[in-house]
Design brief:
This protein is α/β, with parallel strands linked by helices. Helices cover 24% and strands 26% of the residues. The strands form three sheets. Strands 3, 4, 5, 6, 7, 14 and 15 form a seven-stranded mixed sheet that branches. Strands 10-9-8-11-12-13 form a six-stranded parallel sheet.
Length: 340
Amino acid sequence: MSSAVVVEAPGRHRLAAHPPRSPGPGEALVAVHAVGICGSDREVYQGNRPEGYVRYPLTPGHEWSGTVREVGAGVPAALAGRKVVGEGFRNCQVCDRCHAGETTLCTAGYEETGFTQPGAMAATLTLPARLLHVLPDGADLTAAALLEPAACIAAAALKAGARPGERVAVVGTGTLGMLAVQFLRAVSPAQLLVVGAHSDRESLSRRFGATDYRLAHQDLPGDFDVVIEAAGSPSAARTAASLPRRGGRLVLTGIPAPGADGLDPTDLVVRQVEVHTVFGAPPVAWAHAVRMFGAGLLDPLPLVTHELPLTEFARAIELVGAGDPKVGKVLLRPGPEGAP
């Protein structure tokens, strides 16, 4: 019998038997290849995720990749055997926000894979087939496990609307920041600045396309056309807001803890900075991320530093929260082969 991680309550988890659930009408059963762990998974385990955004007991896992093994009635049979990733938000499809394509803002209430619905820290995942995005046959499924955070950054990139020859900047050097660098590099900017907290991320930033690297405490120029904030630290939004030129565009993606430095509305108005925010990824952003990945313009694999079996869930959570700059993306491998 295969296994799944079950978080019974904050701070309590177990490895449980996991019988696959046959797909019903409109559903697909996916064999999970790899599942990523991010800060929100750590919040689930620690019990500090906001009320209404988690439901225990729970199998976590919202960043994943896999292969379709079985489909239910009404789903094209050709989907079986395809490599896929999948959206997490279980939107209603009929409210005004869903009809507008803003599915992460569905007014029917919050439901998401890995938080209120069973997630991918299991050998298989059964979910609505409409949420799946098909990958090229030759896709690297380990790299594809990072397409969920990539889709969130794709949403930011689409809102930023960077054009060739513009000056662009990214604040943050974690997984989201490094993905943002790749999305912005793809539009051929005149300059691509990365602002980080540690100098040891400069080499990777430049590998992904940065032309300049500065530390957050240094003097920073304020003449960028586009700035994407992807750090989520208490001071990141204020730092990012100082970078756009008059009339520039700023996109905020991080969700810092309460008490973060606020933005100065007077400064934003006087400089007429165009401010956008991102919460999750709608279908158009997922499609953009998958296209970028399939075209070879997005390479998440260098961000992966650890691959562990499900049995090491607790260690994986510790690694994510340790603050060690040598720890990048941590993946769990639910399959029988475990970690490579």
